[in-house]
Amino acid sequence: MNSLPLLLAGTAAVAAAIHGASIALTLRKLREKPAAQSTFGTPPVTIVRPVCGLDGEAERTLRSSFHLDYPRYEILFCVASPNDPVIPLVRKLIAQYPEADARLLVGDDAVSENPKLNNCVKGWLGAKHEWIVLSDSNVFLPPDYLQRLFEVWDEETGLVCAPPVGAAPESLAAEFECAFLNEYQARWQYFADAIGAGFAQGKSMLWRRDLLNTNGGISALGSETAEDAASTKIVRGMGLSVRLADAYFVQPLGSRGAKEVWARQVRWARLRRVSFPLCFALEIFSGGIWPSVMVAAAAGLTGLPLWIGFVFAAVWYGAEALFARRLGWHWNWRSPFLSLLRDLLLPLLWIEGWLGREFQWRGNAMVAAPSSAARAAG
Question: For 285, what's the count of Cα atoms within 13 Å in the CB-facing half-sphere?
Answer without folding.
Answer: 12
